[in-house]
Design goal:
The chain has no helices and 13 strands. By secondary structure, it is mostly beta strands.
């Protein structure tokens, strides 16, 4: 059991706010239930026009946000220094990495609490294809390879 840095009270490992003083506890990631895979009735995502690969937020905070995968390796997490900053408590500080090599994009879980899901399946590492749904915390994103598909 951890202790609150503000008041010193014992706090269970699964809480993000001290039950004694209600101080937010730093460096904690809240757990959550994964978002269900989209049903056939879900609105289709229009592919954005792009020369390279990108992720488009479809559900969760920041809907419509686009992340262009323009480097060989990008970090994804709640750390403001992450290449792709996902500001939500369900995202670990260093949640995942995206690797771009020879036209192929791979997502890799970096030991996160809530994991990485591709098309509703928990993965440690997966090669992405156009239309794949990538979920990191409450963020559900659609992968687009860009260019001629």
């Amino acid at each position: 059991m951890d202790t609150c840095p503000a008041c010193g009270a014992a706090v269970p490992p699964d809480v993000t706010v001290c039950p004694s003083c209600e101080e937010a506890l730093p460096e904690r990631t809240a757990s959550f239930a994964p978002i269900e895979a989209p049903s056939a009735s879900a609105a289709p995502v229009q592919p954005p026009i792009s020369d390279g690969p990108l992720l488009v937020v479809r559900k969760g905070p920041e809907v419509g946000e686009r992340f262009y995968l323009d480097r060989p390796r990008l970090t994804v997490g709640r750390d403001p220094q992450a290449d792709i900053f996902l500001n939500d408590i369900t995202v670990s500080r260093a949640h995942a990495a995206l690797e771009v090599e020879s036209g192929e994009v791979t997502v890799k879980d970096e030991g996160s609490l809530n994991g990485v899901y591709v098309n509703g399946v928990s993965v440690d590492r997966a090669v992405l294809h156009t239309g794949d749904q990538v979920q990191i915390g409450r963020f559900q994103m659609v992968f687009m390879s860009g260019g001629a598909e």
